[in-house]
Structures are given as C-alpha cells and as structure tokens.
Amino acid sequence: MSHAHKQLHPGPDTPYGQAANRSINVGGTAFAYRDLGPRSGVPLILLNHWGAVLDNFDPRIIDGLASRRRVIATDYRGIGASGGTAPVTIGAMAQDAIALIHALGFEKVDLLGFSLGGFVAQDMALRAPELVRKLILTGTGPAGGKGIDRVGATSWPLMIKGLLTLRDPKFYLFFTATANGRQAAKDFLKRLKERKENRDKAPTPATFLRQLRAIEAWGRQAPQDLGSLRIPVLIANGDNDIMVPTVNSTDMARRIPDAQLIIYQDAGHGGIFQHHADFVPKALSFLDA
To answer: Listed GO molecular functions (predicted)?
Structure first.
C-alpha cells in the first residue's frame, strides 16, 4: 500500500503523524479535523489549547488513546485549516464544537479538553448534557477560576523569553524549570515535529489575540454550576501549573460530584505530556469503566 493511498484511507492503525487532514462543512464554515482509531464505541473528541492547531496534539497521547478508541482531533473556528474568524467567547467555541459533533453524525461523545479546550469541554457538557458521556479535563479550570484572567500577563514575558532564547514558549509555559521539566519540555517539542508532511497551518497573531480575549473573559465570568454535571469526570494537572493555577483543578474536583483527580508531581501545565505513559492508561481505564 503506497504512502499516498494510506493517507487517503487511514486504517484503524494509522498513527496520528500520518492521519489525513479532513474537513467538514458546518453551517457554511469548513472545520478541519483528523479521525483515527477503531470505528466502534463512543468517539473521543479532543479540544486543544490557546493557539493550538492539529499539530499541537501530543502524538503519544493521541496514538495511545486511539489504540482503543475512535479519536477525533479538531481545530477551532478561525485557526489552522478551519475557516471563519476565531470566536471571542468560550460559549461560541462550545456551540461550534457541538455543531461539529452533530455534523459528524454522533449522538454521544466523550470529551478531552486541555487548557482552553477544558473550558470549552465544561461549557459543552453544561449546554448539551445529553451529548456528553464522560469528560476529561486537563491543565484547566472553571469559569471565574483563580488567575485565568491573568493568562496573558503570565504568558507574554515567557513568550518574549522564548523569542530571545530561540525556544518555543511552551518550553517555559507548559513545564517546570527543574531538570525533569526541562527534559520533558524538549521531548514534547520534539514529538510535535515528528509529522513531516501535510502539517496544519500555524495560527495568525490576530487569532491568538482573539482566543486570549475568550480565555480572559472566561476568567472573569461568573462561576458555573459544576454540581449539576452528572457524568464521570477525570481531572489531571501538574502540581505547579503557572498558566491555569493547579488550585483550579482541586476546585473543580471538589465541585463536580463524580470527579477523579490526578496531580502529577514536579510537573506544570503540560503534566499529561510529561507523564503521557501514566496518563494514557489511566484515561483509557476511566473511559472504559
């Protein structure tokens, strides 16, 4: 089977690095996604961080999850290969994702949201409770959560440091400054470069700023009724998240009736990337339980 043919017709064993870029029209806007793993069971929809495109999903996590689950990685409106203009509210992103799921023909899904994606996933579960079976929230926090309205102020100096040191800002933002953290950061950033062909488009500065407006508005929003979430929820983070402070993870775990909490030691915002070998089996057993 030629490589090109495999691109067009990925089997259940196609790795994320070779998964085809797909697109679906949702209400007149093209949404980009990748679809892999077995065709049976409840699909797992992935929602990613601020400024992320399809190539910012950790291939170790996706391939690990897709060994047993159908996994669909998505691009928000206005970012990567998706059309339209990036929304400036989490609510609009959640409505987009719900519409995308309906367009794909799914009646029940599991959600995994990282950072900004975790805000969107919570909002989706509250807006469309009949749609969401289980929820995984990583490196994230609730509406009105501590420090979320300060994400920009926290991030800009480290983004500038990234430019000055010729490093991806995620090196500083997602990982701790310890030897462990630095090694995990290098490994993670290397994994993100594994895909060589048909990569997604990088985000524009305007999109980055529009998404930041949505994040900061979420941080100023009134708290939501997380006690009304009547589904199983798995929450994971590092013990030293400087972007969405770790206290938000413990707060969500306290407020959600059926929540499990994993806090990784000596890890930051990207704790699940640093500890992917531990996180993937835990996530799969949570989804299978």
So the answer is: hydrolase activity
Indicate the pLDDT class of residue 13, thresholds 50, 70 and 90: confident
| C-alpha distances out from residue 208 to 37, 88, 211, 284, Å | 30, 10, 5, 32
**Reported pTM:** 0.95
CA dihedral (25, 53, 125, 13) positive or negative = positive
Which residue type, as a one-letter code, is found at position 101? I
Candidates 119, 90, 83; CA nearest to 244 is 119
Q: Where are the domains positioned within the chain? A: 22-288
Provide the 3-class DSSP secondary structure of residue 262: strand
DSSP class of residue 42? Answer: -
Query: What pLDDT is attached to residue 2?
Result: 37
Radius of gyration of the chain (CA): 17
Is residue 256 within 8 Å of 228, Cβ to Cβ? no
Read off the pLDDT of residues 220-262 as tens digits, 9 standing for 90 and up. Answer: 999 999 999 999 999 999 999 999 999 999 999 999 999 999 9
User: Tell me, which fold does domain 22-288 have in CATH?
Assistant: Rossmann fold (3.40.50)
Work out the mean pLDDT of the chain and round it to a whole number: 95
Dihedral Cα 81, 85, 91, 94, nearest 10 deg: -20
